[in-house]
Specification:
The chain has 485 residues and is mostly helical. Helices cover 48% and strands 4% of the residues. Helix 3 packs parallel to helix 6, helix 11 (278-291) packs parallel to helix 13 (336-356) and helix 13 (336-356) packs antiparallel against helix 14. The chain is globular.
């Protein structure tokens, strides 16, 4: 009991400094970066290490994979539930890896934490890709059963069904994204852990081969196990492009270049997310056109700039709405996921442009690296509290942040304070429907965000706005490092 009291005092002492985090209009990007990575510890599944800093979480999902006679422990719960969906988890991993590769030199002491966050995912994804020959495991936990419960991950008693794709039940989208994640991470670990890096790359090649050889959408193979939660709405061509792009970068093997050119993936887009990777792949591939002056990649540069023209608010080709407070507004549900992902592309393309003094035009509008940088800064600053409500949408950052997030572990008492197990529906009446703030602060979590009128009700039951997710955070790590001093 004394230890619990001491831990509570330490947390209160720590939280007393949170009010000093930000000066209105001049956010502390370094502090936000630290917290954005710490958040991932709150999403961990499996046996937690002694270095765990979010201490209200405990071991969970220790029998994951048992129903298929394999070990699928580890990885991350995607959002406020207790399900492991590999499609968004792999995208989360790719974005964390890209952020680390692109901005690692600016991360300072947070670089090690970013690597640890990536490795927690890749250790799990490696198991999924290698446990059974001819199969790629793509999820653990029945979302339909899980979503009927409001219980801590540590108490989970719903069936932990295991889902997979195979040559007869293909999933080019989830396989392409998994290959991208493993290939991107292989470059993160290339110098610090060469043996692990080689294993990641070897596995990435095998998974990509599976994605290319057995074409099909995983939504068609798995149905209600992944839909409507993480259906592959955009099809699988974008993941084939994305996966091949990452393997080309990791291997320099021309066969991946030939493959991605043969895809004819030239659909115009004004979005980037766990589902639609076209814009991300184009910005990523345009790196070769800009930094290496490789004319073979000019078409991707053109497509990347077409995307930017659809995002910039003063572009004649803009198809992007902005709130009165200046926030990019794409879709009503979990809008900040699009804001963080697109912001990552803005800072990254701005970085490439700046390095080569490149500019381009959207009609009569001249676009410079500063144009993209300034828009990206406005989005990041809005999330960190420079908005009409003066509210930070990152939990635990600044004096005013969401207190009632849609997240099971955060909203229910920890095992330390309530050792008795809570059943499937035991948490609804006393906690889910309560107007009290969550007892556990999920530091660094970015929620779905405000509505189109810059309003935010801070209501736990309003999951479209109050639920955090791994992929919202993964995409902002890079931009926060970019702006950090």
């Amino acid at each position: 009991m004394r230890m619990i009291k001491a831990a509570s005092f330490c947390l209160l002492f720590f939280l007393s400094f949170l009010v000093l985090d930000t000066v209105q209009g001049n956010p502390n990007y370094r502090d936000a970066l630290t917290k954005s990575i710490l958040f991932f510890q709150g999403q961990r599944s499996g046996r937690l290490p002694k270095t765990q800093q979010i201490t209200w979480r405990s071991n969970s999902g220790l029998s994951d994979g048992l129903l298929a006679h394999v070990d699928l422990t580890g990885g991350y719960y995607d959002a406020g539930d207790n399900v492991k969906f590999n499609f968004p988890m792999a995208f989360t991993t790719t974005m964390l890896s890209w952020g680390t590769l692109e901005y690692g030199k600016k991360m300072g002491p947070q670089l090690q934490d970013a690597r640890a966050a990536i490795r927690w995912a890749t250790d799990y994804l490696l198991k999924c890709a290698t446990a059974t020959p001819g199969k790629l495991y793509v999820g653990v936990g029945d979302p339909n059963l899980d979503h009927k419960c409001w219980e801590r991950p540590e108490d989970m008693d719903t069936a932990r069904y295991v889902y997979s794709v195979s040559p007869s039940n293909p999933g080019s989208d989830v396989a392409g994204e998994t290959a991208a994640a493993l290939a991107a991470a292989s470059m993160v670990f290339r110098k610090v852990d060469p043996k692990y890096s080689r294993l990641l790359l070897k596995t990435a090649k095998n998974v990509m081969q599976f994605a290319m050889q057995y074409r099909g959408a995983y939504s068609d193979s798995l149905g209600s196990a992944v839909c409507p939660f993480y259906c592959s709405y955009s099809g699988y061509k974008d993941e084939l492009l994305w996966g091949a792009a990452w393997l080309l970068r990791a291997t320099n093997d021309v066969s991946y270049y030939n493959f991605l050119k043969s895809l004819g993936a030239d659909d115009a887009t004004d979005i980037f997310s766990w589902d639609n990777k076209f814009a991300g792949a184009r910005v990523f591939l345009s790196r070769r056109a800009l930094l290496n002056n490789d004319k073979n990649f000019d078409s991707f540069k053109q497509q990347a700039e077409d995307f930017m023209c659809r995002i910039l608010p003063n572009s004649p080709y803009s198809s992007t709405q902005y709130t009165q407070g200046g926030l990019m507004y794409k879709l009503p549900a979990s809008n900040l996921q699009y804001v963080t992902s697109i912001t990552f592309l803005l800072t990254t393309y701005s970085k490439y442009m700046s390095a080569t003094k490149h500019t381009f035009n959207c009609g009569s509008l001249l676009v410079t690296s500063s144009s993209l940088r300034n828009l990206a800064k406005k989005q990041v600053d809005y999330i960190l509290g420079v908005n009409p409500l003066k509210m930070s949408y990152m939990v635990g950052y600044g004096p005013y942040f969401p207190k009632r997030i849609h997240h099971r572990g955060s909203s229910l008492p920890s095992l330390a304070s309530h050792p008795q197990a809570m059943g499937c529906d035991g948490g609804f009446q006393p906690f889910y429907y309560s107007s009290n703030p969550n007892p556990n602060i999920l530091i660094g979590a970015i929620v779905g965000g405000p509505n189109q009128n810059d309003g935010y009700p801070d209501d736990r039951t309003d999951y479209s706005h109050s639920e955090p997710a791994t992929y919202i955070n993964a995409a902002i790590v890079g931009p926060l490092a970019f702006f950090a001093r």
